[in-house]
Amino acid sequence: MKILFDKANILFQNGKSIKNGYLVVDGKKITYISNIKPEGHFDRVIDCSKKMLCPGLYNCHAHSPMSIFRGYGENLPLDRWLSEKIWPAEDKLTEADVYLSSMLSIAEMLKNGIISFSDMYFFSETTAKTIIESGIKANIGRCITAFDDTITAETDTRFKEGVELHKTYHNAADGRLKIDMSIHAEYTTVENTCRYVSDYALENGIGMQIHLSETAKEHAEGIARRNGLTPAEFFLKTGVFRANTTAAHCVHLSDNDIKILSENGVTAAHNPASNLKLGSGVMPLAKLIDAGVNVTLGTDGSASNNTLDILKEAYIASLLQKGTTGDTSKFRADVFVSMATENGAKAQGRVGAGILKEGAPADIILIDLNAINTIPYFDLADTFLFSANSSNVYMTMVDGKILYENGEFTTIDEEKLKFDFSNMIENFYGR
What pairs with residue 405 in β-bridges? Predict the structure, then answer.
């Protein structure tokens, strides 16, 4: 299908913009961007005179099945939240629960302009099916934990599930779905497991996802447990960072930790809302960016956030940077536009994606500039960051296919999903 976005206010991934521009999507690719209107026949012309056209957003840390726990276990720090509420509830999960919860999260993300997400959890094959059915993009991994020093690759059932997931689903749906390996965190693994999991990722050219130094308690106990090594130093020692790694949170890092991330090409996924809500702290964003670390944005699970909204994360990240440093000009809006778009594509290993450019994948969103909260508008990057919110997302397109437009999904039956999910919730908490 050939689509012309007509008279568009175009915001590029680097924060630069043009007004009254034209962009053409032909099939899965962007084929034309200019201030000059193209000639020829189009299957559809979309009037964008009061809309902003942007690259699609990336959510680089999520647990999509955790929508089932939204609002459950509030007002607790991370360690108590996990041990008293989440882990006991997770023991009751079934594949059917995970299917509906993953699909609900995907619907929320599409509605909020997210075209791709990074996910670590279990029942991953079920989540993979929802990704394929819905049309979204994702990098997912079977989250691996290990507490037995004698465990091997041959005896580790979680690792074997991750390998089978990779063999079955990597690059499925024309590359929309990619499989990563995933180690939960330093405090939930042993050295041997880190080695054989990272060996597999490196040998197969796939990514790694981990949690890293989310809380001060986790960081300090890791140092005590690993004979003076920080969690980042532990993962470096065990070879994890040899693969293309995305480390979620990165709140409590030493200067040497930051150097390690920079030198090893590790992406830091900033989850400001979840980190604040759980009382975990604030990522040292300025230090990471100044060190050349690729920083992206994530929501974490909707159990700890409680929404899957990257525009909100970008807004909070910007305000935290200004408020904690007292410097309102160090990082302007373009930095956060990049974090939400092209930096995410880089983290997921999606070469040539996350950008608006001829030949790039047609992963595009439209934001309403005629809403009460978006008028007037001057600089489009500032409007994206400070004025717009997820309610202003008018359209979400992935690989040239419109998946959400003006309140309607094209691949998801919203009413059926909400009905089925509500029934499942009643049964789940009554088990």
Answer: 395, 408
- Give the residue from 285, 206, 267 showing the smallest Cα distance to 58: 267
What does each C-alpha distance from 251 to 184, 187, 239, 280 come to in angstroms? 16, 15, 21, 8
Spatial distance between the Cα atoms of 431 and 429, rounded to a whole number of angstroms: 6
Residue 99 is which amino acid?
Y
Q: How many CB atoms lie within 10 A of CB 276?
A: 14
317-334 pLDDT, tens digit each: 999 999 999 999 999 999
Q: Tokens for 269, please give them.
A: 């996924």
Check residue 430 and give its pLDDT: 75
Q: Which of 347, 366, 385 is the last residue of a domain?
A: 347
The rounded distance, in Å, linking the Cα atoms of 226 and 232 is: 11
Kindly state whether residue 129 falls inside one of the protein's structural domains: yes
Helix 157-169 vs helix 191-204: crossing angle, to nearest 10: 10
Tokens of 61: 């840390």
Q: Looking at the structure, do residues 61 and 94 belong to the same domain, yes or no?
A: yes
Beta-bridge mates of residue 121: 142
206 and 104 assigned to the same domain = yes
pLDDT, one tens digit per residue, over 354-366 is: 999 999 999 999 9
Number of domains in the chain: 2
Which of 305, 320, 347 terminates a domain? The answer is 347
* pTM (global) more than 0.85: yes
Mean pLDDT of 378-390: 98
Q: Are residues 239 and 366 in the same domain?
A: no
- Find the domain containing 395 and state its range: 2-55+358-409
